[in-house]
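Example record for the data management plan.
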Amino acid sequence: QVQLVESGGGSVQAGGSLRLSCAVSGYPVISYCMAWFRQPPGNEREAVAAITDGGSKFYADAVKGRFTVSPDNARNTLYLEMTSLKPADTGIYFCTGRTNGGHWYAVTTWTDWGQGTQVTVSS
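Corresponding structural encoding:
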């Protein structure tokens, strides 16, 4: 059974850091494309970062240089390391995996989704 479970969200002040985790069951995280999306309050879900099964990484312009996506093969977990957080980073963060061939930044590209974890950044 495929399951993605996010954790690590919380409330931090601007400039702070958080590390999100996505525990995956049902398939190896390093064998499929994986990604993080977020949904700011009152807005649509948007792409944050992705990593291919070959290890190539992609980031939204808004998070480049501040966020890092990485897989942990031993724990079968996907991480999102977030630094220099800004209030604009506030939202629900979702882990997703396995693509159907579309663009990495499109919600419809992805097959499996977690339930999300809340990140709140205060100024």
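Summary line stored alongside the record: The chain has no helices and eleven strands.
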